[in-house]
C-alpha cells in the first residue's frame, strides 16, 4: 500500500513530502473497520502541536479528513496510516454515514468545518428548537454547514452575506413555507 507522508528535517523548519510503500494493513481488530479511501482533504500540518505532543518520528502520515467505502469490519492523531492512500484502518466511532447527494470530495472537505459547526451549535450554545442563531458569512463552507445543522435542530437562522452572489446562495437554504390551516 502506497501512502503520502511528510518528513521533517533536523532543523524543524523544512518539510518534505514522500510517497512510501508500506506493508499491507494488519488484520482489523475489534471496533476497527477497513475503509477504501475515495477522497482525502489535505489539512495544514501543525508541527508545533506535534512537537508539544512529543511525537518525534521520521515520517508522519498526511491527510486526516477522509471519505470512503467500508470494506471490512476520521483517522485519529495517533494513527500510523495516512489518509492519502488507498485503504486505511479506522475505529468505528470515527465513522459517519455520507448522504447520497454529497460527493466524496465534499464529504472529505467538509469534515473540519462540520465538526466546528456542530461543536459551536450543540455543545457551546446548546441550540434547541425555537431558539434563534446568527451565523456570520453564511455562504462560507462553515456557514452553510452551520445553517443546515441549525435548521435540522429547528432553530431560526439569521445570516449575513458579503455579496449578491452569497445572498442568492443563502436563499437556497431558506426552509419551505408549509401550507397550514388556521382554525
From TrEMBL:
InterPro entries: CRYZL1, GroES-like_sf, NAD(P)-bd_dom_sf. This is Crystallin zeta like 1. SUPFAM superfamilies: GroES-like, NAD(P)-binding Rossmann-fold domains.
Amino acid at each position: 500500500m502506497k501512502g503520502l507522508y511528510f518528513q521533517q528535517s533536523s532543523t524543524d523548519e523544512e518539510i518534505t513530502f514522500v510517497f512510501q510503500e508500506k506493508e499491507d494493513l494488519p488484520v482489523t481488530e475489534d471496533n476497527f473497520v477497513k475503509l477504501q479511501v475515495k477522497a482525502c482533504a489535505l489539512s495544514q500540518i501543525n508541527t508545533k502541536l506535534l512537537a508539544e505532543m512529543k511525537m518525534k518520528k521520521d515520517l508522519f502520515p498526511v491527510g486526516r479528513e477522509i471519505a470512503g467505502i467500508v470494506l471490512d469490519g476520521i483517522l485519529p492523531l495517533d494513527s500510523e496510516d495516512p489518509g492519502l492512500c488507498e485503504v486505511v484502518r479506522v475505529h468505528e466511532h470515527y465513522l459517519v454515514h455520507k448522504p447520497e447527494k454529497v460527493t466524496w470530495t465534499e464529504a472529505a472537505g467538509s469534515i473540519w468545518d462540520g465538526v466546528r459547526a456542530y461543536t459551536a451549535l450543540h455543545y457551546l450554545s446548546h441550540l434547541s428548537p425555537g431558539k434563534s442563531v446568527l451565523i456570520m458569512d453564511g455562504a462560507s463552507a462553515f456557514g452553510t454547514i452551520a445553517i443546515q445543522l441549525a435548521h435540522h435542530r429547528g432553530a431560526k437562522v439569521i445570516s449575513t452575506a458579503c455579496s449578491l452572489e452569497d445572498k442568492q446562495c443563502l436563499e437556497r437554504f431558506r426552509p419551505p413555507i408549509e401550507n397550514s390551516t388556521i382554525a
